Amino acid sequence: MNEFQKKYQKEIEELVNACHRCAELNYVTSSGGNLSLRIGEDLMLITPTKTLKRTMRFEDICAIKLDGEEVYFPEGKKPTGEWKFHTRIMRRRPDIRAIVHAHPPILTGFAIANDGTMEKPFLPEPIIEVGPILTVPYETPLSEALSERFDEVIEQSNGFLMENHGALFCSFTGIEDAVELLNMTECMAESILVARLLGNPKTITKEYVEEMDWVIKERNLKVPGVEGKFRSVGEMYHLSE
Q1: Which of 155, 175, 161 is nearest to 230 (CA)?
Q2: For 151-166, how does the pLDDT look when each residue is reduced to its tens digit (9 = 90+)?
Q3: Which pTM was predicted?
């Protein structure tokens, strides 16, 4: 273990465990998906390219600055080719500590359908912990254009569908939380599909969505999205217009 790994041992282990959790849940297959964890104002750990998440090792994790400068690459490894949107999001959202991009089957189905369903308020926990699940228009993976597409929505929520691609979730607290936000929202997507089979899925009404501000305050949580963007949860869901 080198000096860099010793200094950030706890954070590297957290990132590796999060990779294994995503693989366990079948939210990543082959070497798909990527995760990152902020470890300084302008520094992040990030998963390497062409590496299975289920076999990710402590020794595999890379580190880069938010301007893309190399800090630490293990021998034979380099960061995921999608590092550009990780660094861009972290620069635009200094409140974000962790990002997980994956391909959960049901959320990815909604990303393909692109019908706006996931932007609606269905369940309390996703409302107060993630916000509306907004869509990032399709661009070629690894491209600068894909990175730039996040500018359109990144301040408005902590959860996103990447059209015909997958999903991405951000956490204020850490990488384990980012994976749990992903898991919670994938479960909500499954529940919405069941509701469709049983009849018309019913959203939470404007009155009750707006009461979520009180729940957030009681739980000492932050409103999803960049700080100060919205005055209320109802505004976040465009119910107060």
Answers
A1: 155
A2: 999 999 999 999 999 9
A3: 0.96
Torsion sign, CA atoms 178, 179, 184, 185: positive
Domain ranges of the chain: 3-236
Question: Positive or negative CA dihedral for 188, 192, 197, 198?
Answer: positive
- The residues near 226 (Cβ < 8 Å, ≥ 6 apart) are 92, 93, 95, 154, 155, 156
**CATH number belonging to domain 3-236:** 3.40.225.10
Query: How far are the Cα atoms of 102, 114, 158, 214, 225 from residue 11, in angstroms, in the given order?
Result: 20, 35, 21, 33, 24
**pLDDT at res. 240:** 57
pLDDT, tens only, 189-219: 999 999 999 998 999 999 999 999 999 999 9
Residue 62's Cβ-count burial label (10 Å; 0-12, 13-18, 19+) is: buried
pLDDT digits (tens, 9 = 90+) for 91-136: 999 999 999 999 999 999 999 999 999 999 999 999 999 999 999 9
Inter-residue contact 137 to 85 (CB < 8 Å): no
At 176, give phi and psi (nearest 5°).
-60, -40
Q: Any idea which residue has 């990030």 for tokens?
A: 46
pLDDT at residue number 200: 86
